[in-house]
Specification:
Blueprint: H1 10-25, E1 69-72, E2 79-81, E3 91-92, E4 95-97, E5 103-105, E6 112-119, E7 134-138, E8 142-146, E9 181-188, E10 191-192, E11 198-200, E12 203-208, E13 211-218, E14 241-242, E15 250-258
């Protein structure tokens, strides 16, 4: 019996080789025969779902990742006084010290991850709310308190890292006076209906010096001294503000990065 062998040559051989090469380099990933997830958009282990964007982390702990916007690094050009005037707080060698008047970023934000480093005075003067007092205001309205709370009793919802006037931190993670401290804040802005009714409140997670002090906790409303303000549609977006409370507080290495939804690029 004669056996006939088929041989590919020329362009046909090249196409076959290319197909084999692609097949070997790009094996099928995921599944399309699994149940749909609750959102009805993707199969469980769906291989066609968008791959997460690659982001290079900071080179050292606390350093800004590649997709972050540096708000305070070698200069304070991202900031202005709340009346829009040029910033008057003094800055030297990458360290900004609180001065007269509150400052805010020129840009506005909604959902984000925020990193802030601060230090209260080494020389302790005053007590309670009069000791190293400042604040980080999210969207300009929701305060995470800055205070020297190392062996310094005050009302609990006003100590360092408190959601001011609403929730004290779960624990007091303060370092001694003069030492650099860090807040890592994950914030989701409030949502409103088309009619202006509150749909979802602002929610924050705060990590103080590596310790969780608020875990996805909702603000009852914009913060203020002795009161809780009501939500209004203007609460949905705003700048980052740093407070002047008459005490010298230093800031450095502030950066922010937007948080988007799953499958968004």
């Amino acid at each position: 019996m004669r056996v006939t062998r088929l041989r590919a040559s020329g362009a046909g051989a090249i196409l076959i080789a290319a197909a084999v090469s692609v097949s070997s380099q790009q094996p099928k990933i995921g599944y399309d025969d699994t149940p749909m997830q609750p959102n009805g958009k993707w199969h469980v282990h769906d291989g066609t779902r968008p791959q997460p964007k690659m982001v290079t982390p900071g080179a050292t702990p606390g350093a800004a990742p590649a997709d972050a916007t540096v708000l305070l690094g070698t200069d304070a050009s991202a900031w202005q006084m709340t009346n829009g005037a040029p910033i008057t707080w003094p800055m030297k060698d990458g360290i900004l010290q609180s001065g007269k008047g509150m400052i805010e970023t020129k840009a506005q934000f909604t959902d984000f991850q925020l990193h802030v480093e601060f230090a209260t005075p080494t020389e302790v003067k005053g007590d309670g709310q009069g000791r190293g007092n400042s604040g980080v205001f999210l969207l300009g309205q929701f305060e995470v308190q800055v205070l020297d709370s190392y062996n310094n009793p005050t009302y609990p919802d006003g100590q360092a890292s408190a959601m001011y006037g609403q929730y004290p931190p779960l624990v007091n993670a303060s370092r001694p006076p003069g030492e650099w401290q860090a807040y890592d804040i994950i914030f989701t802005a409030p949502r409103f209906t088309a009619a202006g009714t509150l749909e979802k409140p602002a929610v924050v997670t705060v990590i103080h010096n590596g310790i969780v002090v608020h875990n996805a906790t909702a603000y009852a409303g914009p913060t203020a001294h002795k009161v809780i303000n009501p939500y209004v549609p203007a609460s949905a977006k705003g700048p980052i503000r740093l407070q002047d409370h008459g005490n010298p507080v230093r800031f450095r290495n502030i950066w922010i990065r937007p948080i988007k939804g799953y499958d968004e690029t």
